[in-house]
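note to self: dont lose this again. the chain is below, predicted strucutre after it. 325 aa total, dont forget to put it in the shared folder this time
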Amino acid sequence: MNILVPGGAGYIGSHVCKAIAARGDTPIVFDNLSAGHRDSVKWGPLIEGDIRDPKALDRVFSRCQPEAVIHFAASIEVGIGEREPLAFWQNNVAGTLNVLEAMVRQGCEVFVFSSTCAVYGQPDTLPIPESESRKPGNVYGRTKLAVEHALENVSSASRLRFAALRYFNAAGASPDAAIGERHDPETHLIPNALKAAGGLLDAFHLFGDDYPTRDGSCVRDFIHVDDLATGHLAAMDRLVAGGDSFACNLGTGTGITVREVIEAVEAVTGRQVPLVVQPRRPGDAAELYSDTRLSSSLLNFSPQRSDIRTIVEDAWRFHQKDWDL
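---
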């Protein structure tokens, strides 16, 4: 199959492209390279373009005739979204609607959407089930929820079928160190902890050590990016085979504290992570981790590389090469 991957030059998208090619299909990356990396497109063609340009989307659909779309193109930095909400709504919502309109015009019926557990906001239930109320607490989560609502509407009025994958904390890198996490700015926990261990940051900032958790730091559900790639392909295959639209979590169901991540980084690197404790950030929940029963039953999804030691080992192997440590 030809599979169109908007945002395929980014972190998760490039890992999905690698998995697509490994099974003999062709990932066609459509990316404006504003956040992605040209050298992460290794397993299929790159077509430079912007999802906010409907004519460019029509051209790529006509040229490539994709049988499915796996969509990653989005703005993701939560703090930037709070400062620049219009840019987030234009890219994440208006841009995605352009993709959906092009699909409907071209008769492409399978859409896998990179959603997020941020659509839940502060949960009432742990682990978080898909039935949890969706009440996002930031612009990023609201834009992803808006697309989920649009997908529900479009699928009920057309032949389009979708999977909205609400994943938790993507982490790690490909085991062969070919690709990994490279955000600018980098706000994610594991790369920044590794930077601190490698001497590229003066210290790692721990936001809050007084949460009602086993060691006072936040609890999060870390899932290996390769496991996420597997989940995306399983979702696509279910839809290609005629399955109905659905939304489900992709996580491990296991919560890891920030301090436990730091301990894993120190164990893997053999280096100390200099630590500065700062006050809690507004809106940070004490615990967020996934109920995995639906993904297990729908997709036969079972993460294989998502123990924290493996995640950190794979990330460190990539970053040592990327940072020339």
